[in-house]
Amino acid sequence: MVVVEGLHKSYGSTPVLRGVDLRVAAQEVLVVVGPSGSGKSTLLRCINFLEDYDAGRILVNGHLVGKREVDGRLVRDTEANINRARAEIGMVFQGFYLFPHRTVLQNVILAPMRVRGLSRPEAEAVAEGLLRRIGLLDKASAYPEQLSGGQQQRVAIVRALAMKPAVMLFDEVTSALDPRLVGEVLDLMRELAREGRTMIVVTHEMGFARDVADRIAFMDHGVVVEEGTAAQVLDAPRDPRTRAFLGEVT
Amino acid sequence: MSGYTIDLTGVWSRRDMLLTGLLVTAELWILALALGLIGGLIVGLGRLSRRRVLAWPSSCVIEVFRGTPPLVQLFWFYYCLPLLFDVRMSALTTAILSLGLFSTAYVGEIVRGGIQAVHKGQTQAARALGLSKLQTLREVVLPQAVRRMWPPLMSQAVDVLKATALASSITVPELMYQTYRATSQTFRFVEFYTVSALIYFAICLPLVSRLRRLEWRSGA
Questions:
Q1: A159: contact with B, CB 8 A cutoff
Q2: Among A159, A167, A241, B131, which residue has the fewest nearby CB atoms (within 10 Å)?
Q3: Does residue B140 lie within any of the structural domains?
Q4: Is residue B213 in a domain?
Q5: Domain boundaries along the sequence of chain A
Q6: What is the ipTM of this complex?
Q7: In terms of pTM, does the model score above 0.80?
Q8: B58/B107 Cα distance (integer angstroms)
Q9: pLDDT tens per residue, range B22-55
């Protein structure tokens, strides 16, 4: 479903990703953990091409993301193709980024209408179904500022789901939340994992990682140091860097 | 006091002169503002563009028209443009064009500032959903930027209104020009200039008070 091969990315002369290889199968949940600055967020941002990368390949559903092959070399794809690829990749951010001038419902129907070409009634039907599911249908005509942080983040998740993406990326989605609001967001993500969605989750919540992860990848200094099941990586880490990191967070 | 006696009969008998002037002022003001809004949106977006062919000319327009006195701009358009490029325009058209470019420069900076004040995450979230650059600008960035742009735009509208008085110096028959003509017929300087000032003030007042409410609401 998602294939990352030899991914390199630098900001100026600072390397952030130094050869990342990852595979995520359909319906699999990959949780990426690691210290800040290890390149986890940059990895997610490369997967939906919010960041261009220097070398390597990213395939989602068998299609290159952000690049196309010309005479055996990879060049930046056209804007239209990049947009099309992004529509298949849902992303949820640490800072929610709901559109403050649009109601909850308007936030959710925007992309399905403009990108997928759904009619308003069709998009609203999808949006209302999703909002009902997360218990926020009564907030459909509220503005984001009228919601709690947890509610905002759940709407942001639903906004991404409304596009029916092939894979969902979660970038430290609970880090900006008041601790008592973290639970409701994690519960929703657990549910999504259970129903077999393909997900790549960057998080610092180790308990949650253990719950939902089919596999865990530990990143440090721009490379995947260790990868395996939760039991392998969290309970019996082989690499000293993984051990050191887990020692700090638990 | 110097014992000057106020006599408004001259003003009253020349009220249609003032009214004619007021209508020309309104025409000049509205058209220059409209030009400034359209031009300002273009150069404001242009200046933010990563493409040099767009950014560079936009910056030039903004810096030149903000960095020179509007009176000099007006004279330049009125006297130099016909000599250099053999274009013939009425004084009113010249003034509309000149003041329109003057406000283009300021509106351009207001547009740029408004857009830059929108959090980068908004653009990222929109692009991550698959929206194109143009859709992101139209549906997500501009609506938020426009809210921030309202107060400075109103203040700009007031500035342009006041600048229309400069057009009298190139014989545009607007309010200031008519006031000046009336004083040369009646020598009633105090009456005419005071009434004229009050007319300008009366137009500005609703804008200024609305502006104050907007600034109060946005906490500025």
A1: yes
A2: A241
A3: yes
A4: yes
A5: 2-88+166-249, 98-164
A6: 0.92
A7: yes
A8: 12
A9: 999 999 999 999 999 999 999 999 999 889 999 9
